[in-house]
Design a protein that fits this description.
331 residues, alpha/beta, 8-stranded parallel beta barrel, 12 helices, 46% helix, globular
């Protein structure tokens, strides 16, 4: 059975504070380590009242200080928002603090609305177009400096922080293959091109100093509980959040509701259910069946699970149930 990892966005739950959201991320990372997960990644988003992980490297340090063994990192840093040197220094610092545990997952989406993206990037076109070159520069800054290298990342150089390429389109599959990087596909919210992207990546992969053969991670939304009905109830928080995104309603991560009927229109329902079609929601038996089908279909090397649950206690229970599922699937 493949490794299981967790993707966290430090959700700011309705009725709770940012401090509580960040503490919940710490609790999740500790629980994930205790349960044998491989990685705990945090995602960069900006200007969203329901997400507290905007300063991603800072939050990675927060969960890193609370854990000892689990890998920590970004899923991901939106590189066009930043100068490669700044990211090299930040992740070089994290690697110095938590040796051998840090991953640097990179994406090219803004992680926000266009107005906020412009405030972050200033030059939108240059940020996107230079993405491949910025990855190469970042790789150089994190590696062994050459004798004539004028630009040094301190901390950063010689840290060899592993780079990952994240994506939700075929572009990222081609780029990850060309650069010989491990590849994580955002199938937890972008299902349509999953299988084609995996095929392109595997078929066109070029071995690199970092990786000699393709390595694919796939994502799902995961909500596990004691019963199917309870899990489906908890999942209404995520369904509401995706409806709100489509309506451009920015608010805290919603409490679960009894039913989505009357909350969404038929068109919204279709759109959200399509977007979240790979979500694994249910009690252990139901979740196990869905997981087995998904992993067989993708042939993935690793699974990363995002757990959009309002209550931190129920989120931690979901972490336990998914860990138990993996152990049972090993038998």
């Amino acid at each position: 059975m493949i490794p299981f990892s967790i993707l966290d966005l430090s959700p700011i739950a309705e009725g709770h504070s940012i401090s509580e959201a960040l503490d919940a991320s710490r609790q999740m990372a500790v629980k994930a380590e205790d349960c044998g997960y491989n990685r705990f990644w945090l995602a960069e988003h900006h200007g969203m009242p329901g997400i507290a992980s905007a300063a991603t490297s800072v939050v990675i340090g927060h969960v890193g200080a609370a854990t000892k063994r689990i890998r920590i990192g970004s899923g991901g840093i939106m590189l066009p928002n930043h100068a490669p040197l700044v990211i090299a220094e930040q992740f070089g610092t994290l690697e110095a603090l938590f040796p051998g545990r840090v991953d640097l997952g990179l994406g090219r989406a803004p992680g926000t609305d266009m107005r906020t993206a412009r405030a972050l990037r200033r030059n939108m076109e240059a940020g996107t177009e230079s993405f491949p070159h910025d990855i190469i520069e970042l790789r150089r800054l994190l590696g062994e400096p050459t004798e004539d290298q004028a630009l040094l990342a301190v901390p950063g150089m010689r840290s060899h922080v592993p780079l990952w390429l994240l994506g939700s389109s075929l572009y990222s599959a081609h780029l990850a293959a060309a650069l010989g990087l491990p590849y994580a596909f955002a199938s937890h919210f972008a299902p349509d091109q999953l299988m084609e992207a995996i095929s392109i990546y595997r078929d066109r992969f070029q071995p690199s100093d970092e990786l000699d053969k393709p390595y694919v991670m796939v994502g799902i939304m995961g909500v596990a509980a004691e019963t199917d009905a309870e899990a489906e109830h908890l999942f209404t928080s995520s369904q509401q959040q995706f409806v709100n995104l489509r309506r451009n309603v920015r608010k805290a991560f919603p409490r679960p509701i009894e039913t989505m009927e009357g909350y969404w229109s038929e068109v919204e329902r279709y759109g959200v259910e399509h977007t979240l079609r790979y979500a694994v929601v249910g009690a252990a038996a139901t979740a196990r069946t869905k997981l087995a089908e998904f992993l067989k279909m993708t042939g993935a090397d690793e699974l990363i699970v995002s757990m959009p649950i309002h209550s931190v206690e129920q989120r931690l229970r979901s972490v336990e149930i998914f860990a138990d599922l993996r152990e049972k699937m090993l038998d």
